[in-house]
Amino acid sequence: MNQNNEEVKNVTDFENPEQYSSKKTIKRYKVALLIIAVCAVALISVFGIRAYQLSTMDPFEQPGSTLAQDYFLSSAKTYFEFDPTKLPTTAGSCTTVALKTIQDQKLMSDVNYYNKCDKDVSLVKVCKLESGNYHFEVNMQCENNTTTVAYSDEKPLVNEADIANKMGVKVHFSYQAQRLNSETSNIGEVETMWLDEVPYENYKIVKETTYYRYRDKLWAFNGDVRFYYPQDKSNTELVSEYYKEAPSADYTFKETSQNYAYKWYIQNDDGPKYYYPSGTTNAAEEKTYYLTAPVQGAKRDEDTKTYASKYYRVENMERSDFLPAKPSPNSTQIEGTETYSPWSEYSRAVPEQAPFGEGNRQVETRIRVDVVPITTTEENGEVEWDQITDGYLSEKELVDKLNEMGYQVEDINDVASLPDVKYSIRQTYIEPIEA
């Protein structure tokens, strides 16, 4: 009996049939845990490196980022705000502005991403729709744009809301023209007036210009309110002034720019440099910096390149003035305080549709026109227009057709200015298809 017990004691755990199964499972479990641990470390390393790469990557190059297109578009709109005469004035016409032009006029701050782009081929295209509204389209050619964009089939543009604020949509126009029957009608002298005040029953518009006005939806807030130097504006989007140091002892908080800021000056011919906005001729005395040109014609002083900040003070208020957006992350909108700002003056500059968020701004248009009154010898008083084209033609086809008839026109703007020719527009569009 003792001998048997000794034999049992000398049998190892793995040799003992009663213990073998559980011990083997434990060993496999430990091996599995080791493999899982190694894989986990590898995954953490890979994703950690990727996360680090993304965190240090230029925000303009983050996967899926539209910052480059958004900022290019915003800068192009500033270009047209400075000189609205560069906007197309004829319905169905378009114009473009190149990235190089925007940069040459210092209307965008220094962004390294754009150094990888073809600055002559990268364009913002703006077209005037039949309604008088404008559609902006962004086309960028950059080194990292390697994907081919697929577009939808061409669709008729019935509702402009379908393409509103879509900078990847491409709008196309075609035209059908008519000519005044000169045997039964006469054309008067050109007169300028608002379209809604034209007194004539029969007339032809030879030029039209769209003017805009807007008003913003406002609310009162309570809680923290930020007031930015120097004008105590309560929305950072409306503030363009930057400073190296606090410009006042009352403004102790700051938002530092991610891009370079400069001092700017106005100079006529070879005269002195007058720094904006103080008017001093001494660069050291000017304290205000801007990321982009603050006024039309301002020149950038390259020697003043630096990082600067917007400065603000914070005031806790029971009720703020009426504002278009939250004046601080810690503020709260007061229910029942919604109202509107007064209408702005009419201007040719196209206002931002949603500077403070969707639905906060109302925009109205009014059309200024050059018209020629038309009189007719027909007893029924109707003016006769004869079809020039049976169907709709491209701009080039229409221009060629009219030149064959003896007119001297180069584009749709010239066609629009003809007192005895009018045209209707067919608008279509294509849009990018999401992968």
Overview of this structure, please?
- With 435 residues, the chain is an alpha+beta fold.
- The chain has 3 domains: 55 residues; 107 residues, no CATH class; 146 residues, no CATH class.
- It contains 6 helices and 19 strands.
- Strands 6, 7, 8, 16 and 17 form a 5-stranded antiparallel beta sheet that branches. Strands 4-19-5-18 form a 4-stranded antiparallel beta sheet, with no helix packed on it. Strands 10-14-9-15 form a 4-stranded antiparallel beta sheet, with no helix packed on it.
- The radius of gyration is 33 Å and the shape is globular.
- The termini are far apart.
- The N terminus is likely disordered.
Number of domains: 3
Distance between the ends: 80 Å
Number of strands: 19
**SS strand fraction:** 25-35%
Biggest β-sheet strands, sense, barrel: 5 strands, antiparallel
Alpha-carbon Rg, integer:
33 Å
SSE arrangement:
Blueprint: H1 2-10, H2 17-56, H3 67-82, E1 94-98, H4 99-104, E2 123-128, E3 134-139, E4 155-156, E5 170-180, E6 185-187, E7 191-194, E8 203-218, E9 221-228, E10 253-256, E11 261-266, E12 274-276, E13 299-306, E14 309-317, E15 332-333, E16 339-340, E17 361-376, E18 385-387, H5 395-404, H6 412-416, E19 421-430
Antiparallel strand pairs: 1-2, 2-3, 4-19, 5-18, 5-19, 6-17, 7-17, 8-16, 8-17, 9-14, 9-15, 10-14, 11-12, 11-13
